[in-house]
């Protein structure tokens, strides 16, 4: 059977062969609704392709790396990026490629195309996930078509799809993806009709804007919005666009009135009603006007929010467009972070000791309020900004096709990251002490005034710039003894070369920009710049919020000193009991019974390869802040999650193992910065690995070998 | 086994054979027939049990393997942090079991098992691309694993094959160096 079906053939084919979107389009066409010229690349093409190229097995290996329920959302994104890269870089099965490309080209020779996902479970009445899979506009040429068919296939395993794996019925062993290819309609006005408003079942909603509707769907273009009576189409209210600008496709928004006149509004409304009758449920239809002809682009059931009360819906909203990310960067750099710094400084200026008990209670409460406020800002604005890196990652992989899908990270290294700068300052201090060995003693004994002049100066600079940070409810490196121990360890490491790949970085950046045509290179350079900001600011923001958190904890500590347990904000939090040096999880406990006949011990665990290289050394498990100061050079750092506030031990480590999984989390970033082998996403890392055990970290494959 | 031994022509290996079946049963094309059967088994199976030496006892592991067409070498991959790698680095003498059993009682007579004896060492960097291609052709899903700098591609230089058929029939195929 042909791998590419025409419209008449689609309507005669089973839904599993053509996917939900193609089936809906064929049904509309049959009923006489105008749709663009359409063909479908069947699921059979997908199946034959993944089997012939060996991709199916590789997909399974990637997704079965660890139990799905143990994967963090970040890890799903990482996995999805790897699979996307696999589809793009695997040598193609040429016969299938040629049949697909030729099949489509025969129908649309030389036309600009739209390439849309048509998954088997997608757009059914039971389930509609707008944006779980990918669609691409304005695709040209045989290579362009083939690349985007691959990208649509890969989007069967997008992070959104993996997140809703269960609901979508996604099974990597048997699921397949069909692809809808349409002629690109150069509509002059476009939009969406909800035949029933997701907010009010008595109303319908039309959104419309000039140009194509990609900008509208991405939220970059503000539409005109009509609310209509669902039964009659009578206009209930009208909302003009909030602001005007250029459409994302470059079609300028004209100031010449509204995109739809009264007759057209009614025509669009009728299209919504007609498709609702056709499919038997309220529909969300994308449409466009080519001259005066109304064309339906796709239709799917209206859904009212994706699983209300479900955190996954929040994750989906984190995905941001380029324009939105630029705005966020501006806000973070020029507003949020400077304000956080000022806030922490202002709090630091309040002398807690001079406050009355009531005053201290009030201050603690005030600080709690301030911390809560900034933590919310952090979640609302800082976390979504991480998508700057994600957007760049996809574009980089699409254009460069590297063997390593995380090669792009090497372009993002930034010596200006606060955590890196802080470590550089520590190194400088260590160097000062190396030249003036007596000063280590005076520092340890806390007689700083008797240290050498240079060391005093370096010390003052260090305290001034980086003195306030905390982790595990403790203020780190405030005590001179702790600082002296750490510096001694730094000194024993000898002078270290810092990250010296500036040249390689420039070459990689050049390689990336040159993959774009001349006219788009400026965009490429700006995107890289955005990604670098995202990488740096997302690391720095932890340090800024850490400073505010520290000021709140100081108030709490002062309460503790005064035994002020009855403040209105509530009792003092329980301090965690230090387990430093102890081994709460013995091998016997892991088996469940000390008298058991068997002893179970992990030997090799699979996680994520987050920093390339292999290292073997003694494990040092970090559970509390005190553990940090027992860290010896060349040990393997084992922890739950590396916080930017505890990174000062990282340069001492031969390798890093982290429970929290992800390729772009702080531990991974810092490991790459120092060239330290790193594996993340090792379940119960701090329990199954014990301090003193011999551990090998394989940062190429993401393996941790114990013993 | 569908291939005809006669179609293969002259045996290029210089094979010496020993059998525990009566002399009169042998035919002229015995070497070819054994060779064909071994090749077919090696081609049909993806996995083998590798035995290395740890201290004074054997240590077994399941590996995905690929064999060269001349039967002189068998390839498999391992990370350098594994026990089997450490064992082979210390003592290169290894054995490999390849079989086509299906976990049913009739396997006792119908399954074929092949014991391979030889020396395993890491493929030198200069030869790696060629043999990696051979390995990936059989195991395309191992592409990521093999491309890791921490993964060693191992080659076992085969000394002999012991083919066991119909329960107790054992034939030895020695590879002349």
TL;DR of this structure?
The complex is a heterodimer of chains A (707) and B (177). Chain A contains 25 helices and 21 strands. Chain A has 707 residues and is α+β, with helices and mostly antiparallel strands.
Describe the structure.
The complex is a heterodimer of chains A (707) and B (177). With 707 residues, chain A is α+β, with helices and mostly antiparallel strands. Chain A contains 25 helices and 21 strands. In chain A, the strands form four sheets. An eight-stranded mixed β-sheet of chain A has the order 14-21-20-16-17-18-19-15. In chain A, a hairpin with a 5-residue loop joins β8 and β9. In chain A, α6 crosses α7, α14 packs antiparallel against α21 and α20 packs across α21. Chain A is globular. Chain B is of the alpha+beta class and 177 residues long. Helix content of chain B is 24%, strand content 38%. Chain B is built from five helices and eight strands. In chain B, strands 2-3-4-7-6-5 form a six-stranded antiparallel β-barrel. Chain B is globular and about 45 Å long. The two termini of chain B are 28 Å apart. In chain B, 28% of the residues are buried. The N terminus of chain B is likely disordered. The interface between A and B is medium-sized, with 18 and 14 residues.
Q: What is the number of helical segments of chain A per DSSP (H or I, 4+ residues)?
A: 25
Radius of gyration of chain A: 29 Å
Q: Based on helices, strands and strand pairing, what is the structural class of chain A?
A: alpha+beta
Global shape of chain B: globular
Could you estimate the helical fraction of the residues of chain B in percent?
A: 10-25%
Number of helical segments with 4 or more residues of chain B: 5
Q: Give the biggest sheet of chain A.
A: 8 strands, mixed
Calculate Rg of chain B over CA atoms: 17 Å
Number of strands of chain B: 8
Mean pLDDT of chain A: 84
Largest sheet: spatial strand order of chain A: 14-21-20-16-17-18-19-15
Most extensive interface: A-B, 18 and 14 residues
